[in-house]
Design a protein that fits this description.
The chain contains 9 helices and 12 strands. Helices cover 39% and strands 26% of the residues. The chain folds into 2 domains: 182 residues, Ribosomal Protein S5, domain 2; 129 residues, Alpha-Beta Plaits (2-Layer Sandwich), CATH 3.30.70. The strands form 2 sheets. Strands 1, 2, 3, 4, 5, 6, 7 and 12 form an 8-stranded mixed sheet that branches. It has a 4-stranded antiparallel sheet with strand order 9-10-8-11. It is α+β, with helices and mostly antiparallel strands. Strand 9 and strand 10 form a beta hairpin. The structure holds (R)-mevalonate.
């Protein structure tokens, strides 16, 4: 029996969510909160078992998945079939440390881990570019059109400057110099599609003033990667605060998110903002060296959970192969 375990990191959008859907650039980083997939050969058909969803089912490329939450995995197999993969029988167990619908890209990272484990098991591991495009297609079928920033971050890893038009424009590796990224959960769950559709509608209705905000967000993301390269955490923090204001302007903040954002700033964060689709989910704060504990403490007093992951970590990878 052959067994393969692959993992993919979660993602945190540092600057530019929503604006990236309509062609502005965004800055996103891979964080050390992992989804894992373990594939073993044998059995009948391709069986998927998701620990976090509590489901087990056989995926059939000819029909819809028995549970809508498994549809991205079924679509991933359809894409493999169209690339002439022989869909050999296997059992794949997937699991994620990232809570769903929190803004961490857990579905993209679980699908990427699934695809990498399965294609490695069948002897033809997807390269990064194909892993990205199939993860993106699988995500789209389940969640509606997306910019692709989530799949790109979890597949390529590091910290990326991304746009729909050019995909990964630039990629850096490793941590943010001089500061630590802290994630706090608002505890409020929401879908990504709702806020995305309402922002697109707002831009259509408002026209020029909204377009100006998109241009500002685009430049903010570019300035962000430049600040990262210089190790200028103070400038990055300022850009995060500014970006949060732009996200409030387009209507995706909420009282719970504002509370966390301002608590982090009052505790000494260089910057803080909502991250992901908003109206719930997570906020991120950039704590300068020496203020980490204070910022973490202020967030812990308000949030169901707070994490301090490594950032700019490698993308999807095989971590174990036994024959
Ligand atoms: C979701 O993580 C980020 C959004 O910008 C949607 C997308 O880019 O696909 C809200």
């Amino acid at each position: 029996m052959t067994e393969v375990t692959a993992r993919a990191p979660s993602k945190v959008i540092v600057l530019g969510e929503h604006f990236v859907v309509l062609n502005s650039r965004a800055l996103s980083t891979a964080v050390s909160i992992y989804s894992r997939a373990t594939a073993e050969d044998g059995g009948e058909g391709v069986i998927i078992e998701s620990k976090s969803m509590g489901v087990r089912a056989r995926l059939d490329v000819g029909s819809r998945a028995p549970d809508p939450r498994l549809e991205p995995f079924a679509e991933a197999l359809r894409r493999l079939r169209s690339m002439d993969y022989d869909l050999a029988p296997a059992r794949v167990v997937v699991d994620s440390d990232a809570p769903p619908s929190a803004g961490l890209g857990s579905s993209a990272s679980t699908v990427a881990a699934f695809l990498l484990a399965y294609t490695t098991l069948v002897g033809d591991p997807l390269n990064k570019d194909n892993l990205f495009s199939i993860t993106l297609a699988a995500e789209d079928v389940a969640h509606g059109a997306s910019s692709g920033v989530d799949p790109a971050t979890v597949v390529y890893g590091g910290t990326i400057l991304y746009s729909i038009k050019d995909r990964v424009i630039e990629r850096l590796e490793g941590p943010i110099r001089g500061a630590r990224l802290i994630i706090a959960d608002s505890g409020v769950r929401r879908s990504t599609a709702g806020p995305v559709m309402s922002v697109i509608e707002l831009r259509r209705r408002l026209g020029q003033p909204a377009e100006l905000i998109y241009s500002a967000a685009d430049i903010v993301a570019l300035r962000g990667i430049e600040a990262l390269k210089r190790g200028d955490a103070a400038e990055l923090g300022l850009l995060m605060n500014f970006n949060h204001g732009l996200l409030s302007a387009i209507g995706v903040s909420s009282p719970e998110l504002e509370d966390l954002v301002y608590a982090a700033r009052a505790a000494g964060a260089l910057g803080s903002k909502l991250s992901g689709a908003g109206r719930g989910g997570i906020v991120i704060a950039l704590a300068p060296e020496g203020s980490e504990d204070k910022v973490t403490g202020a967030l812990r007093a308000r949030a169901p959970w707070v994490l301090k992951p490594e950032v700019g970590v490698p993308g999807a990878e095989v971590v174990e192969l036994t024959r």
